[in-house]
Specification:
- The complex is a heterodimer of chains A (350) and B (326).
- Chain A is an alpha/beta fold and 350 residues long.
- Chain A has one domain (3-340): Thiamin diphosphate (ThDP)-binding fold, Pyr/PP domains (Rossmann fold).
- In chain A, 46% of the residues lie in helices and 11% in strands.
- Chain A contains 15 helices and 8 strands.
- In chain A, α6 (149-160) links the parallel β3 and β4.
- In chain A, α1 (3-28) crosses α14 (307-327).
- Chain A is globular.
- Chain B is of the alpha/beta class and 326 residues long.
- Chain B has 2 domains: 5-182, Thiamin diphosphate (ThDP)-binding fold, Pyr/PP domains (Rossmann fold, 3-Layer(aba) Sandwich), CATH 3.40.50.970; 197-325, Rossmann fold (3-Layer(aba) Sandwich), CATH 3.40.50.
- Helix content of chain B is 37%, strand content 19%.
- Chain B has 12 helices and 14 strands.
- Chain B has helices spanning 7-21, 45-49, 61-73, 92-99, 102-105, 135-139, 152-164, 213-226, 244-254, 269-281, 303-309, 313-325; strands spanning 5-6, 25-29, 54-56, 77-81, 115-120, 145-147, 169-174, 181-182, 197-200, 205-209, 231-235, 238-240, 257-264, 290-294.
- In chain B, β13 (257-264), α10 (269-281) and β14 (290-294) form a beta-alpha-beta unit.
- In chain B, α9 (244-254) crosses α10 (269-281).
- The longest helix of chain B has 15 residues, at 7-21.
- The chains are: A alpha/beta (350), B alpha/beta (326).
């Protein structure tokens, strides 16, 4: 992968991390309400997958979708404004954190009933197949979502009609507080796709380059007309399920183990011509991101200004996003009614 | 005007016309393709339009209705057939949580030209799990529209209007209407999709009804006329939105309201009509509005009990006489 692409991946991951941490802060200040689910730890999945997609592909995501939305090109300011419930949000304040939409960018939504993304992606895939276009529907879901009936219903239909759908399981090992071995008889999620003869792989979801490569390969197969593909990315969320969840059910040692494979750390490492040695990592101290700045500098892959400059720029964008969200007006009840009837046009009902 | 045709044939012709008019229209559901539809509604269309536009689905109501939602989001015009409304309970997430809400939740960004067709109601001894009426559930969903055609002419008009609309529309049919006959004039200009229709003029009471109960209400009105009571019979044609003006105008004229519904009484369409018309026309009413509705029991298999569980013309006549005696 060329250095430019690697920097772009790193940039999106840094932005994702900074955005989500700031969202948590704004939530505690009361600027964001409702349910707020945050993505830190899983950045490599959304970033790796969506960098391998084309702008003509459709993205269907869950309620844990801020990062997916931003990687698709929705400006952080309109995502933040949506979290604030403001009129300039990407769903004009009607959807909130769990329901980001952007028709122009083919971001087909955040769906907050677990298991809804499959049939929506199947329907988009059906439309693509009917129109014989070289597009794909990319369907995100968590490990906890694979026990809904719609999973099996949609996989069956998509396989039966060979629809251009890429299933992307973000396996973070927990459905809220229930660990995967306590919610799934078969904990290797990708194996379930075999029941529908959908080619499936398990990939390290903490390594953005592996995610990117696997997605590219899967999409090539789909565009070649070979039907659906299924990727399971093993990942981990550093926070609880939502802001209402302290995540105390998870053993400390497990959280630490995954934090050591922080995907941002890994991404930084992969912008190097070689991985750092264990000694180098140990010498760098506990800050998993910061200690790799040196390596980046030495590799010469970062802009001359360096990693800290990237971080500063990301922080500036997030600050600006919050200011934009604060300044944006509240939507009115008239707006809400107009959105409800947006598709009525000149139609006379009665 | 042509010879009378079956209600299913009117639906079939409507689908044929829309499939021919727009490549984005496709029909999906169990046995809608090769088999031609459980009630013959899609007969002959598979041969004409092929499998992508007449898609036989697995038995996955939640899945294929949700698939319709996804296709509608990208500008297709799916017509989902759910074999009977009883199975729609498995598809309510797609209908209520998705179809009705996504255009709104997205701040008005997405179209939802989705039609979900399904027959509801009590047929002939199909027992409780196949005799559901679900209008009360669907009526309570902002974002949905519900058409309830009672005649072949309305079936033709309303299904075509539904397919052409950008909003999600439930077309609520009735198993016992598929093989009822009526005239169809394809050249007639349709009224607005949700406007009620006064089927019979009368001065003594207003009977407001819909779907299969229209025919029973007209039978009752004829019997009432023999006894000197002239009922005005209104076919709602739509349960959401409700054409309040037509109903209100009638009640202002007759001063008495009787709602006839097949669904059970509690919190149903009749409850809404009585409440809405009482709010609008309280001082015009000469007597408390009445409802004739299905009993508050699951529908029994036994034929005699089944018949007794839903309104019969004699029940409507009795209720009307009581109402007019007040």
């Amino acid at each position: 992968m060329e250095a430019e692409r690697m920097i772009a991946l790193l940039w999106d991951m840094l932005l994702a991390r900074a955005f989500e941490e700031r969202a948590a802060e704004e939530y505690t200040k009361g600027n964001i309400a409702g349910f707020l689910h945050l993505y830190p730890g899983e950045e490599a999945v959304a970033v790796g997958v969506l960098h391998a997609a084309e702008p003509s592909d459709y993205i269907v995501s869950t309620y844990l979708e801020h990062v997916h939305a931003m990687v698709c090109g929705i400006p952080p300011r309109t995502v933040m404004a949506e979290l604030f419930g403001k009129k300039d949000g990407c769903s004009h304040g009607m959807g909130g954190s769990m329901h980001l939409f952007d028709r122009e960018r083919r971001f087909m939504g955040g769906y907050a009933i677990v298991g809804e993304t499959y049939p929506v992606a199947a329907g988009i895939g059906y439309a693509i197949a009917m129109r014989e276009l070289p597009e794909a529907a990319i369907c995100f879901f968590g490990d906890g979502a694979v026990n809904q009936g719609t999973f099996h219903e949609a996989l069956n239909m998509v396989a039966l009609w060979r629809l251009p759908v890429l299933f992307v399981c973000e396996n973070n090992h927990y459905q809220i507080g229930t660990e995967i071995h306590r919610h799934s008889a078969v904990a290797e999620v990708h194996k379930r796709a075999c029941g529908y003869r959908i080619p499936a792989r398990r990939v390290d979801g903490m390594d953005v380059l592996q995610v990117h490569r696997a997605t590219q390969e899967a999409l090539e197969q789909i565009r070649a007309g070979n039907g659906p593909q299924f990727l399971e990315f093993e990942t981990y969320r550093f926070r609880g399920h939502s802001m209402a969840d302290p995540g105390t059910y998870r053993p400390k040692v497990e959280v630490q183990a995954f934090e050591n494979t922080d995907p941002i750390t890994v991404a930084i490492a992969e912008t190097l011509p070689r991985y750092p040695t264990p000694e180098e990592i140990a010498a760098a101290g506990p800050d998993s991101i910061g200690h790799l700045a040196d390596h980046l500098d030495r590799a010469g892959h970062l802009p001359p200004v360096g990693l800290e400059a990237l971080r500063a720029e990301v922080a500036r964008i997030v600050d600006e996003a919050v200011r934009f969200a604060e300044a944006s007006p509240e939507p009115t009840l008239e707006d809400a009614r107009a959105y409800l009837e947006c598709n009525r046009g000149a139609e006379v009902l009665i | 005007m042509s010879d009378p045709i079956y209600y299913w044939q009117a639906l079939n012709q409507a689908l044929d016309a829309e499939l021919a008019a727009d490549d984005a229209v496709f029909v999906l559901g169990e046995d809608v393709g090769l088999y031609g539809g459980s009630y013959r509604v899609t007969e002959g269309l598979y041969a004409r339009y092929g499998e992508w536009r007449l898609r036989d689905t697995p038995i996955s109501e939640g899945g294929f209705t949700g698939l319709g939602v996804g296709a509608a989001l990208v500008g297709m015009r799916p017509v989902v057939e759910i074999m009977t409304i009883n199975f729609a309970l498995l598809a309510l997430d797609a209908i209520i949580n998705m179809a009705a809400k996504v255009p709104f939740m997205s701040g008005g960004q997405f179209p939802m030209p989705l039609v979900v067709r399904m027959p509801g109601g009590v047929a002939k001894q199909l027992a409780a799990q196949h005799s559901q009426r679900l209008e009360q559930t669907l009526m309570n969903v902002p974002g949905l529209r519900i058409a309830v055609p009672a005649t072949p002419q309305d079936a033709w008009w309303q299904l075509r209007q539904a397919i052409r609309s950008e909003e999600p529309i439930i077309v609520l049919e009735h198993e016992l209407l598929y093989f009822s006959k009526g005239s169809l004039d394809q050249a007639l200009e349709p009224p607005p999709m949700h406007r009620a229709r006064i089927h019979r003029q009368g001065s003594d009471l207003s009977i407001v009804t819909y779907s299969r109960m229209l025919d029973l209400s007209l039978q009752a009105a004829s019997q009432l006329s023999d006894r000197g009571i002239e009922a005005e019979v209104i076919d709602l044609r739509s349960l959401r939105p409700i054409d309040w003006d037509t109903c209100h105008g009638s009640v202002e004229k007759t001063h008495r309201l009787l709602v006839v519904e097949e669904d059970s009484c509690l919190a149903g369409a009749g409850a809404e009509l009585v409440a809405g018309l009482t709010e609008r026309a309280f001082y015009a009413l000469d007597a408390p509005p009445q409802r004739v509705a299905g009993l508050e029991i699951p529908i029994p298999y036994n034929g005699t009990l089944e018949a007794a569980s839903i309104p019969r013309p004699s029940d409507i006549v009795r209720a009307a006489e009581r109402l007019c005696a007040d």
